[in-house]
């Protein structure tokens, strides 16, 4: 099995040399274990946090040990009757080509007629995150005007479409022309943030939605949060899903100077971690799965080929090189 490790805890933007590819012989299967050839690996922004060597809501990655992450693969050898050879499974032993783990850590794939990698994106953790943030945290209502930052990524691209279905004005913030074009193609008003300061971004958001927003779905932080705070309606709800603009900061920058807008607009701001809501995953699948299957909900993916490209795929998340879900085909 070939697998990646990190050799240090990065400060600031991780360097490519942080990641090392190793090879090892896997031991014979123990009773209850299965061997899985991974067909798709997920790289996700939260992995940056796990590289820092501190415990947050999840344990940090250990140095020089196989990295972990969501993956999909096919059972190629099995000593667990529940997962015979040929079963397609999802598990957390990513960043490697062949995984060996107890059957208890394998999950069979749901059976919608979608490509299997959708269970790492729109019908997996990122999709569940978008649905949870909008419905369970921001308590989105019919007709709400909704603003989403990171709007063309894995989470954001489902968030804008779920919001759009509620009938209000939906505005998405994203970084590049092709992302803005994709948003417009889904009926979302697209606003670029690159090259703008908070005042200019505020102005662009006000132009896109003069009445202001009932919901802000936060993926980015920084000037996106500052501008969003300026455009809230009274009683607005902010679901704090992520703050990717900060993940590579060596020293934390100051928060937005206009936080008092929370007070002025009587707004509520609440962070959440999707794993705490995982008992609702079947409900999410029941609602969103058929819409993905029928094509009513669109999803995009960006694929890097080859296990050795996994770190590059991960680092590209911070350059905005992905449209939709970033995946690796090992
Ligand atoms: P994305 O697919 O959205 O990929 C990351 C995107 O973030 C990039 O494509 C880029 O888009 C944007 N970005 C990167 N750096 C910056 C920056 N400095 N400023 C502004 N935008 C930047 O990733 P995900 O959909 O997987 O995750 C989106 C967010 O959701 C992240 O913050 C992540 O941590 C969070 N998350 C939270 C979860 C939870 O349980 N709370 C679960 C899953 C994800 P662009 O070109 O537009 O700049």
Automatic annotation (TrEMBL):
Highest taxon of source: Bacteria
Pfam families, sorted: ADH_N_2, ADH_zinc_N
Enoyl reductase (ER) domain segment(s): 12-328
Keywords linked to the UniProt accession: Oxidoreductase
GO molecular function, one term: oxidoreductase activity, acting on the CH-CH group of donors, NAD or NADP as acceptor
Signal peptide: none
Designated name of the protein: Enoyl reductase (ER) domain-containing protein
Organism: Halomonas stenophila
Lineage: Bacteria, Pseudomonadati, Pseudomonadota, Gammaproteobacteria, Oceanospirillales
């Amino acid at each position: 099995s070939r697998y990646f490790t990190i050799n240090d805890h990065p400060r600031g933007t991780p360097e490519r040399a942080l990641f090392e590819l190793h090879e090892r012989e896997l031991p014979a299967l123990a009773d209850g274990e299965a061997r899985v050839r991974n067909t798709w690996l997920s790289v996700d922004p939260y992995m940056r946090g796990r590289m820092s060597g501190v415990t947050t809501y999840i344990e940090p990655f250990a140095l020089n040990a196989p990295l972990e992450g969501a993956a999909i693969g096919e059972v190629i050898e099995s000593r667990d009757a529940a997962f015979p050879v040929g079963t397609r499974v999802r598990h957390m032993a990513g960043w490697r080509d062949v995984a060996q783990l107890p059957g208890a850590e394998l999950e069979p794939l749901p059976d919608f007629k979608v490509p299997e990698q959708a269970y790492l994106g729109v019908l997996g953790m990122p999709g569940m995150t978008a649905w949870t943030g909008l419905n369970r945290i921001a308590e989105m209502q019919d007709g709400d005007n909704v603003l989403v930052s990171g709007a063309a990524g894995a989470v954001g691209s489902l968030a804008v479409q779920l919001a759009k279905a509620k009938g209000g004005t939906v505005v998405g913030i994203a970084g590049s022309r092709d992302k803005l074009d994709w948003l417009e193609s889904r009926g979302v008003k697209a606003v670029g943030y690159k090259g703008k300061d908070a005042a200019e971004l505020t102005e662009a958001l006000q132009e896109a939605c003069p009445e202001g927003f009932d919901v802000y779905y936060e993926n980015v932080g920084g000037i996106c949060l500052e501008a969003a705070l300026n455009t809230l309606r009274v009683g607005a709800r902010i679901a704090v899903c992520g703050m990717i603009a900060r993940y590579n900061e060596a020293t934390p920058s100051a928060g937005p100077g206009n936080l008092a807008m929370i007070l002025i607009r009587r707004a509520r701001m609440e962070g959440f971690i999707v794993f705490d809501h995982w008992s609702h995953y079947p409900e999410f699948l029941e609602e969103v799965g058929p819409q993905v299957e029928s094509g009513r909900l669109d999803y995009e993916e960006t694929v890097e080929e080859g296990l050795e490209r996994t770190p590059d795929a991960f680092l590209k998340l911070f350059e905005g090189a992905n449209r939709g879900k970033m995946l690796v085909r090992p």
